[in-house]
From TrEMBL:
Membrane topology: Peripheral membrane protein
Domain ABC transporter: 7-256
PANTHER family with a match to the protein in the record: DIPEPTIDE TRANSPORT ATP-BINDING PROTEIN DPPD, OLIGOPEPTIDE TRANSPORT ATP-BINDING PROTEIN APPD
SMART domains reported in the protein's UniProt record: AAA
NCBIfam families per UniProt: oligo_HPY
Superkingdom, natural source: Bacteria
Lineage: Bacteria, Bacillati, Actinomycetota, Actinomycetes, Pseudonocardiales
Residues annotated as transmembrane: none
Alphabetically ordered keywords of this record: ATP-binding, Cell membrane, Membrane, Nucleotide-binding, Transport
Family to which the UniProt record says this protein belongs: Belongs to the ABC transporter superfamily.
CDD domains attached to this UniProt entry: ABC_NikE_OppD_transporters (cd03257)
Protein name according to UniProt: Oligopeptide transport system permease protein OppB
UniProt-listed InterPro entries: AAA+_ATPase (IPR003593), ABC_Ni/Peptide_Import (IPR050388), ABC_transporter-like_ATP-bd (IPR003439), ABC_transporter-like_CS (IPR017871), Oligopep_ABC_C (IPR013563), P-loop_NTPase (IPR027417)
Cell compartments where the protein resides: Cell membrane
Length: 335
């Protein structure tokens, strides 16, 4: 069967004054209706750039899509006409961002911004669109929706603004929602409420959800599958239970070892020594080798393939099989 969305071998670079940054180096993942795929990784790993490429909103002027496909119901959006891409945006795939305040227009009421989409894209009358906006604010559990529909974004709390953005993203009833760090800017209690809301709506509507996050706690609670990104590549992709039971990539393993540090919720992953490589100078061989406690000589020269493992699982480590069998490849895990 054709997945709802499949990204295939996406390659993107940014041409900057400092050189060519290879930001996506062959990213592939897929998500089905009713499924939540969590895309996990440190900042700069390419999570957001992948999402922006899917949406056709890569906003960096020096960005160049070198190749790959974004297949929505099997239709490649990268080669689709601009009008078709516009149509898919909102109706097929919608996206919400970390920073609701910059996504909402400060000079219009929240209700107007939602209603306007319904008027322009669905051809509803002013009155119908207003009613639709109130229903959507209700759906995202904004109390007193009838009154709040007249509020401006700055009159909402951070959590309420995030709800309003979710309402706006749902206006055209998309089949897939991409949520880019949707709770990062919020405090922990509000984060949990927003995640509950997203999960409930996703189930009710049988929507696909791509949840971009650096928070393993969130992943464990809501994801069906996980794609782990590093230096513009997916390094592991697995069912959430399988991945937590035993990682098939040393980077995933290091992330999992950060689990006791979930008190650092909301901060960036700091489990691993060293920094991600500069994308203008990705190391030869396995890009993770300078930080990998299990690296051997071969890792310095040979780029590992993103290869299949038993159980709809993939890893880009030379020793993935060995990790699954014994836990560890050659070198000492405690080093
Ligand atoms: Fe580490 Fe080598 Fe596997 Fe890369 S290929 S993750 S360096 S063991
Ligand atoms: Mg990001």
């Amino acid at each position: 069967t054709v997945p709802l969305l499949a990204v295939k071998d996406l390659r993107v670079e940014f041409r900057t004054n400092d050189g060519v940054a290879k930001v996506l180096n062959g990213v592939s993942y897929h998500v089905d209706a009713g499924e939540t795929l969590a895309v996990l990784g440190e900042s700069g790993s390419g999570k957001s750039v992948t999402a922006q490429t899917i949406m056709g909103i890569l906003d960096m002027p020096p960005a160049v899509v070198l190749g790959g496909e974004v297949l929505f119901h099997g239709e490649d959006l990268l080669s689709a006409k601009p009008a078709r891409r516009m149509q898919v945006r909102g109706e097929g795939i919608a996206m919400i961002f970390q920073d609701a305040l910059s996504a909402l227009n400060p000079v219009f009421t929240v209700g107007f911004q939602i209603a306007e989409q319904l008027r322009v894209r669905r051809g509803l009358s002013r009155a119908e669109a207003r009613k639709g906006a109130i229903d959507l604010l209700d759906l995202v559990r904004i109390p007193h929706a009838k009154q709040r529909v007249r509020s401006y974004p700055h009159e909402f709390s951070g959590g309420m603004r995030q709800r309003a953005m979710i309402a706006m993203s749902l206006a055209l009833d998309p089949e897939l929602l991409i949520a880019d760090e949707p709770t990062t800017a919020l405090d922990v209690t509000v984060q949990a409420q927003i995640m509950d809301l997203l999960r409930d709506i996703q189930r009710e509507r049988d929507m696909g959800l791509i949840l971009i996050t650096h928070d393993l706690g969130v992943v464990a609670e809501v994801a069906d599958r996980i794609a782990v990104m590093y230096a513009g590549r997916i390094v592991e992709q697995a069912d959430v239970y399988a991945l937590f039971r035993g990682p098939a990539h040393p980077y995933t393993e290091a992330l999992l070892q950060s689990l006791p540090r979930l008190d650092l919720k909301g901060q960036d992953l700091k489990a691993i020594k060293g920094l991600p490589p500069s994308l203008t100078r990705i190391p030869p061989g396995c890009p993770f080798h300078p930080r990998c406690p299990r690296a051997v000589d071969r890792c310095h020269q040979e780029v590992p393939d993103f290869h299949p493992l038993p159980g709809d699982r993939h890893s880009a480590c030379h020793f993935a099989h060995e990790m699954l069998v014994s836990g560890y490849p050659g070198s000492n895990p405690d080093k």
